[in-house]
Design goal:
Layout: E1 7-14, H1 17-27, E2 31-38, E3 41-50, E4 59-64, E5 77-85, H2 90-99, E6 105-109, E7 112-118, E8 124-129, E9 151-152, E10 154-158, H3 162-172, E11 176-180, E12 184-188, E13 196-200, E14 213-221, H4 224-236, E15 245-246, E16 251-256, E17 262-267, H5 295-301, H6 310-315
InterPro entries: Extradiol_RC_dioxygenase, Glyas_Bleomycin-R_OHBP_Dase, Glyas_Fos-R_dOase_dom, VOC_core
Protein name: Glyoxalase family protein
Length: about 325
């Protein structure tokens, strides 16, 4: 039976690109590992944030559309994106969110305490202490490896047909159902990060795509051969799957499950050091070959951005 190791990446739609970078790099301390463009809409950036090396399971990606309409979080989407932080670092993150005037609350799910808050454009995020997952060696501002976000804890799925999505997660994606309560069903993959999926059991209003919503969730395939096996496997279960699409840093296939959540299966290789060294990840605008001749035009069209150390500004330095 096919079994994914867990989440490869999550992609969301947000607003102004500088606000996006300030929040995920400046506040959360994630590394901007790739600055490129939306291959299907080259006038729009595509940012990738993750751990120090951009490991699968740590990557959140964004299409930032300044002045775009606000979306609505609801069924057919990833409703909440939880991140894993080192055990013992929760109080640090409470203090950090307070320092940046970010409202948060605490909630409990399956015996774990989650720090819940929204990003600057309305995405629902959580932080939860997890022992699993390697240490993120990236330091930025006051965020050091001992407290840095490791990667995804998993995802909370809002499905239009929870029973069908539950069957898909176990029978197709190979996750194991490990717990259930009145509100959620919990599933687990065999990976050490991005491995816990909580599926909301209640059906609510369908989500509307726009700023502050997740566009899709991507699952891990070991390599190109494994991905082709996944494509056949998903097709055999009655889902329409796209052809393989080259995304430069991984290959991707897509399908929409019965609960209306858009799923992707992405290859672990070649990774984000494909066109930059580890030391220089995210430093330059990287373009696929077909857009290289438009570089000068794109540099004039795209909104200028920079990765800023916001801790200096808070301290008045």
């Amino acid at each position: 039976m096919k079994k994914t190791a867990g989440i490869h990446h999550i992609t969301a739609i947000v607003g102004h690109p500088q606000e996006n970078i300030d929040f995920y790099a400046g506040v959360l301390g994630l590394r901007l590992v790739k600055k490129t463009i939306n291959f299907d809409d080259p006038g729009t950036y595509h940012f990738y944030f993750g751990n120090d090396g951009g490991k699968p399971g740590s990557i959140i990606t964004f299409f930032p559309w300044a002045n775009a309409y606000q979306g609505r979080i609801g069924d057919g989407q990833v409703g909440i994106t939880p991140y894993a932080i080192p055990v013992g670092s929760m109080s640090y993150w409470e203090d950090r969110l307070t320092k940046f005037n970010i409202n948060y609350s605490k909630t409990t799910r399956f015996g774990e305490t989650f720090l819940s808050f929204n990003d600057v454009h309305g995405l629902k995020l959580e932080l939860v202490e997890r022992a699993q997952g390697e240490q993120n060696m990236w330091s930025f501002g006051d965020v050091t490896p001992d407290v840095a976000i490791k990667g995804f804890a998993g995802a909370v799925l809002y499905s239009g047909q929870p029973e069908q999505t539950s069957k898909l997660l176990t029978n197709v994606m190979g996750l194991e159902k490990i717990d259930e309560n009145e509100e959620f069903i919990r599933f687990k993959s065999h990976g050490d990060i991005g491995n816990i999926i909580d599926l909301k059991k209640a059906i609510d209003e369908r989500g509307q795509m726009g700023v502050g919503t997740v566009h899709h969730i991507a699952w891990r395939a070991k390599d190109d051969e494994d991905q082709l096996d996944w494509r056949q496997h998903v097709q055999k279960h009655g889902f329409g799957v796209t052809p393989v699409r080259d995304r430069n840093y991984f290959n991707a296939i897509y399908f929409r499950e019965h609960g209306e959540i858009l799923f992707e299966i992405a290859t672990d290789p070649p990774g984000f050091a494909n066109d930059e060294t580890y030391e220089n990840l995210g430093m330059e605008l990287k373009l696929p070959p077909q857009y290289e001749t438009y570089r000068e035009q794109l540099n004039k069209t795209l909104i200028p951005i920079e990765v800023r150390n916001l801790d200096h500004e808070v301290k008045g330095e």
